[in-house]
Structure prediction request, 326 residues.
Amino acid sequence: MARVFSGIQPSGELHLGNLLGALVNWVKHQESHDAVYCIVDLHALTLPKDPEELRKNTLELAQLLIAVGLDPQDCILFIQSHVPEHSQLAWLMECTVSFGELNRMTAFKDKSGRNEFISGGLFTYPALQAADILLYDTDLVPVGDDQRQHIEITRDIAERFNTRFGDTFVVPEHVIPPAGARIMDLQHPDRKMSKSELSPTGTIGVLEPPDAIARKIKRAVTDSDSEVRFDHVEKPGVSNLLSILGAATSTDPLSLADSYERYGDLKNDTVEAVIQLLEPIQQRFFELQADPGETQRLLQLGASKAQEISSRTLARAKENSGLLQP
Ligand code: TYM
Prediction:
């Protein structure tokens, strides 16, 4: 069975972009593939974090992922820092990627521009991400559109390592969904919806109550004419609503556009679809929150399964690169 791997950072509340761009695909793949999913807490440390908040966010994210539909019986779900192979392989990856390649990463330029303290880890972030993926002999990586460059650099690193040291890693492909790969901010449809605090009215959190969701979607920026058309350039706000509705109902946003004549109807249906999607997730999450010990137990189990696979790959990579065995 083909192996699928993906990761998500525990940095603030899960939002609709994460859900529609990536997690819906994670859930789908766990049934048909050998799926491994990771909460990347080490990646979260690349920007300053409050320790207590990070710990809380990490556990809550695990509960949310289970609530969204990941079943630890059907997939391996674990926390990155529980499997030390990730940081160990990351060093070999850092020594395989070039400074120039890291310097061209748009995510680094973006984040370093917005933060006062720029850590070395923020710069070498893609090497750790490559380690995450390559440790599991991954064939497919389900992600949103913003991760394209990270998967591309992972492929380059794997190919370079294989050329230098012989066949060691599987070279992975990304899987990007047809609708929902790029959910934009509701107030600024020219930038992606993100966990950042900059735009609380433009981001929909997965745990938000229905009235807040309705308010945000109804106030979403559209434009001054009234034609419903799927056109990212001329009509970014309307297209974003069509993408959300399309991804939430598994419908093609292009064909959805033909069924609407007014923005109001499109907004009403989007509100309804998003609330219907989120309600059962919220309910399951609140149930899981009552028993954090059970989630911890599942994560421990996930980490030991993940280590079984990743320790073999790490040993192969160390051997091939010429490190003396202890
Ligand atoms: P992160 O935590 O920012 O996002 C998790 C997933 O959500 C997707 N996503 C979106 N999709 C559509 N529209 C949006 N507005 C939107 N915002 C986020 C992301 O594409 C991602 O799939 N670097 C990664 C974490 C990572 C990883 C990995 C991913 C670390 N190691 C290995 C895959 C494989 C990140 O920061 O994702």
Notes: The longest strand covers residues 3-8. The mean pLDDT is 96. Residues 233 and 239 are 9 Å apart (CA to CA).
